[in-house]
Predict the 3D structure of the following.
Amino acid sequence: MKLSHPGTVIVCDNVIREGAVVKKSSGDTNVEGAREAFSFIGGHKRLDGTAIQTVGAKGYDGFAIAIVD
């Protein structure tokens, strides 16, 4: 956030983790990292963001995108 300015776009890839991100029982460090990213985006007053699920030949995953106000 120190290097960002209004209008900066932040993209985090592979955050849906085939649905594991919403399963409380998952102890996967990648899932925990995605949850931390969501918490950061959702809790930061300068960020507006969302997550988008994608589906393809490899299964499903997604990305998060946030814009700095």
User: Anything to note?
Assistant: The longest helix spans residues 29-43. The CA atoms of residues 21 and 31 lie 5 Å apart. The mean pLDDT is 94. The chain has one domain: 9-68.
